[in-house]
């Protein structure tokens, strides 16, 4: 089954930037584009009945789609207007998509993305990758020789989904991948005889981390031999190390394991930090 790239639109400048990003990515990957708009009947607009309000919404979406099709005449586009809550509609749309692309407000390069409750809920609950795009996203950055940067942590299986997404995206764009792994000195009590033996065999902590990254990236190097790869290991917090590479990225890819709490699902701290501070589009990929 061919999954479309799905864009959630609401008429805002940032959602139109996300629609443009999604359309370009759909063309690169040879996939159809699906445009989803969630709306509710506003009883407060007493002068407009349900049919009239639906007509306004339909016209706005059609105008946005018409602009995209003029720029990409061969692109297959479908539209869906869903009456109901935006978070539920978008999470459901993501389930059948190759990826879901959303717009997010951004205030300069100090704060990359301002996530409202809808964005947080969709990212935490989506079973497919979610890409956040800010208003003012520059398509030129995709052709400026910048890498797709991806965070790697744990063993090869822990970041497999994020690495796969990063390599697929880089291959579609003719770009390189910069795989980043952060490490910190663990407390002494965390060492076990088995871990100490592994560290001794690797020659120390940093060589051990470099080997762990190389092992995780190796199968994707083999699957995508045309994609140039840079492996970067640095001591520091994962969020800080990833953000240090953001200025050289056309896309940042981070993995996400949602944490369930009494008040619902929450995004991990690394993904949250990158979303709040990255100056480029960010893809949040749920773990397999």
From TrEMBL:
Highest taxon in the source lineage: Bacteria
Family affiliation: Belongs to the universal stress protein A family.
Residues annotated as transmembrane: none
Residues covered by the UspA domain: 1-134, 148-286
Identification of the protein by name: Universal stress protein
